Amino acid sequence: MFSATANLRRSAAWRISLLATLVFACGTLLVFLYLHHYVANDIQRRTDAWLTGELYTLRDVAVRTPKDALYNRVLRETAEMASHEIPSRSSVLRKPGEPNQAVFFLQTSSEGSPILWVGTPDPSIVSQSLQKNHLTADTPVHLTFPGTLAPFRVAVASMPDGTHIYLGVSEQDEMRTLRRLRTRFFFLWLLNVCLGFGIIFWITRRTLGAVRKITDAVSRIGDEDLSKRIPESGGRDEMAQLASTLNRMLQRIESSMYQLHTITNALAHDLRSPLTAIRARLEIALSNGDGPPHTESVVRAIEEIDRLSEVLNQSLDVAEAQAGALRLHPRPVDLEELLTTMSELYRPSMNENGLRLDLRVLGPAKICGDAGLLHRAIANLFDNELKHLPASRTITLSLDTDQISARLLIEDDGPGFPPEIVSDVFKPRVKGRASGGLGLGLAFVEAVVLAHNGTVTAENRQPSGCRISIHIPLLRATDEPFPHQSQALAG
């Protein structure tokens, strides 16, 4: 489950969906902030319009009402009527006869002491707060009074006799409305973000699924058979065009590889046939025994022909390997068994040359590979040691594994690679000045390792000697059974 989650997070669909969802979420959030600001301003504008209109209505009533015993009663009833025009949760829940807690009306003397009060907050506290803030007529402001749950929107008007009247409206209901708006938006926003992510992820994953199928098909084609093709949907979209283009490219590659095999096979046949005939005739001449001078010449001619055949075979092998055209016969290969067999085969020759071969196997290692090619690659490594390593030296062959690959190390305590070629030892025809070889052995080793999806490196050791390190992927338990027939990378 954890690996599936990790693979999902590494998927491009996951990153694209996250990025698109983030942009969508930020965009909708900005839209909501704008709408929230607009709604809050609209509520305040409407509140200020009602507040200013009712305040000047109360002022007109106060100016026109005679200052007699009915003055306070008339003004109070007018203020209470105005308070009933404000619908609020508190006004709905209050009992008949109770004042509206959302609205207060205050008339103060020129000195600032309360004269007439309608509302629930303490008038003395309200008047003290109003005197401290110095309100300006026609400009409603926010004020918070001790003991109240929410701030009030307050406006003031001056009377001809020097008194002032104040009208305040609680913003509790507006704040509650905006809070509900934010809460509902948050849940809707969260739902839309999750839904948007799911839709984007589904569409993106479905689109990239076609790319994944093409990738898988191309990887199988590269590892198995160039004659296979990518399935085409038959549509006219970009994926169908990509599949069609890749199939045309594979057709050209297959044709080129076929021509390469044809040319190399024909070249090998055309050269090997006369070389074999010449060698046979020289052997016949040698068996007739025409004398020592002729015998020595014939022996040298046979040796040169053998050397020419070796050059031809290795050149063709390296050319095919570097072109990715090696004919592989994949099977489960036990490297421990292969190295043990090769060590026993080469140990007598190394002993004759005064060399010591030390094999260290730290555990079994099975890979999927071509046993014949691996045998030849290891043989090239041993041959290099026999040709270039002085006597009384030690060759150490080590095999161990990690979780994903087998590691093969071949080390010696000889003079090492010449410094001028140590970085190019795997290139064809690269060899030291004192070397009598062809410069193809390590090139073939690298080509075989790369054909097995592995890596190979070479370096000089300290204080002396060289090391060649080969890593090849291990055989997995989930690998499909290997076919019993030979497989070629090109037809």
List its salient traits.
single chain, Beta-Lactamase, 3 domains, disordered C terminus, 15% strand, Heat Shock Protein 90, 11 helices, five-stranded mixed beta sheet, 55% helix, five-stranded antiparallel beta sheet, rod-shaped, alpha+beta, 491 residues
**Topology as H/E string?**
HHHHEEHEEEHHHEHEEHEEHEE
Mean of residue pLDDT? Answer: 79
- What is the number of helical segments per DSSP (H or I, 4+ residues)? 11
* DSSP strand tally: 12
| CATH superfamily annotation of the largest domain | PAS domain
Q: Quick one: overall form?
A: rod-shaped
CATH topology of the largest domain: Beta-Lactamase
Describe the protein's topology.
Elements: H1 2-10, H2 12-64, H3 71-83, H4 89-93, E1 103-108, E2 114-118, H5 123-133, E3 141-143, E4 152-158, E5 164-170, H6 172-223, H7 238-288, H8 292-322, E6 331-334, H9 335-352, E7 355-361, E8 366-369, H10 371-388, E9 393-401, E10 405-412, H11 441-451, E11 455-460, E12 466-473
Overview of the molecule:
- The structure is a single chain.
- With 491 residues, the chain is α+β, with helices and mostly antiparallel strands.
- It has helices at residues 2-10, 12-64, 71-83, 89-93, 123-133, 172-223, 238-288, 292-322, 335-352, 371-388, 441-451; strands spanning 103-108, 114-118, 141-143, 152-158, 164-170, 331-334, 355-361, 366-369, 393-401, 405-412, 455-460, 466-473.
- It has 3 domains: 2-177, 2-Layer Sandwich (Beta-Lactamase), CATH 3.30.450; 238-322; 331-473, Histidine kinase-like ATPase, C-terminal domain (Heat Shock Protein 90), CATH 3.30.565.
- The protein contains 11 helices and 12 strands.
- The strands form 3 sheets. It has a 5-stranded antiparallel sheet with strand order 2-1-5-4-3, with helices on both faces. A 5-stranded mixed sheet has the order 7-9-10-12-11, covered by helices on one side. It has a two-stranded antiparallel sheet with strand order 6-8.
- α2 (12-64) runs antiparallel to α6 and α8 (292-322) runs parallel beside α11 (441-451).
- The protein is rod-shaped and about 160 Å long.
- The protein starts with a helix and ends in an 18-residue tail after the last strand.
